[in-house]
Amino acid sequence: MKELFQHTAITDGVTVRVAVNFLPEQSRIEAGKWFWVYHIRIENDTPHTMQLISRHWRITDGHGEVSVVDGEGVVGEQPVLRPGASHDYVSGCPLSTPQGSMEGYYTFRRTDGTEFKALIPFFPLAAPATAG
After folding, report:
1. Percent composition of the chain: helix, strand, coil (DSSP 3-state, to 5)
2. Known SUPFAM superfamilies for this protein (predicted)?
3. pTM of the complete model
4. Nearest residue to 70 via CA among 59, 56, 58
5. Which of 28, 49, 102, 126 has the fewest CB atoms within 10 Å, measured from its CB?
């Protein structure tokens, strides 16, 4: 299956694209656990080389409960993106409700030492309705 990026944010020449899919095989709906996988592509369309330093996620469940996740890099990496380069990674998100959302930002450091935040677009997490 060809994955289509469904959500995009552009900040100062850095494009963040997200494709999200619900994974019923990783979910335990009877136990109140839903699981999504998301594929992120970060594209550097600037003339600057930059390194992804950290991530900041705001994850909201279907009850409006917010979890904030901050950490170094992405999936254990702090990739360096040269001009015109991109970086892809895949990760997942469990929730205790069948819907929610994610959004956030990455902090990058340019070779001149300046830092900036690139927005991660808001994207919904929604499990398909199940026949009852």
Report:
1. 5, 65, 30
2. ApaG-like
3. 0.92
4. 56
5. 28
